Amino acid sequence: MEARNSWRATRGRRSAFTWQPTRKGQRSGRSQRWTSPPERPCRCRSTLPICKFSRFSRKGKEGKMRTVQRSQKGQSIVEFALLLPVLLIILLGLLDLGRVWYAMVTVNDCAGEGALYAAIRPNDIDGIRARAASASSGLVQVNPEAVRVEMPSPLTPGAPVTVTVPYTMTFVNPLFGAMMPDGQIVLRGVAVEAVISTP
After folding, report:
1. Rounded (10°) angle between helices 125-134 and 55-120
2. What are the extents of the domains in the chain?
3. Strands 160-170, 32-35: parallel, antiparallel or unpaired by DSSP?
4. For residues 178 and 84, what is the distance between their CA atoms, to the nearest angstrom?
5. Cβ atoms 164, 148 nearer than 8 A
6. pLDDT digits over 71-120, tens only?
7. CA-to-CA distance for 109 and 113, rounded, in angstroms?
8. I want to staple 191 with a disulfide (CB 3.0 to 4.6 A). Which of 44, 98, 111, 138 is the partner?
């Protein structure tokens, strides 16, 4: 009775050995005996106890996949931490290049405005400087006292008048700042116009 109950308890389970009753008509001293379970055909038709399609093999592969995913995730974090400073330096470099381009356009416009005013009123030096500084706006602010006006003497109609507008810009990128003295660069806008009339 005990053997029968144990056979019922193990029936339907996956085990190395199971109870199996003897056939009818077969006389044996034991009513039941240990036998190996019949081999079940697998989808891959493998004779191995555990193949790649079995439940146990899938569990092992899932565990390995989780380990690989964790290692790849950690590797991605380390790579991002190493590349982040490089990306920031590149971003700041692009920002500085954009600021340099904007400042050059602004100081050239300021010099052109001052030269046009100087062509009409060449003797009004303060007016030329104020007119050149008024053309600056936004991030670039020109100091009127720094504007330089050059003209020949004696002044005659058709003589060239040169207006130079300097602007000092400080770099944000530490690499660009290390290459320049004091981390700054001086940009100059120059414009030349011919004198139209003299007082």
Report:
1. 160
2. 91-194
3. unpaired
4. 20
5. yes
6. 677 778 888 888 888 898 888 889 889 999 999 999 999 999 999 999 99
7. 6
8. 111
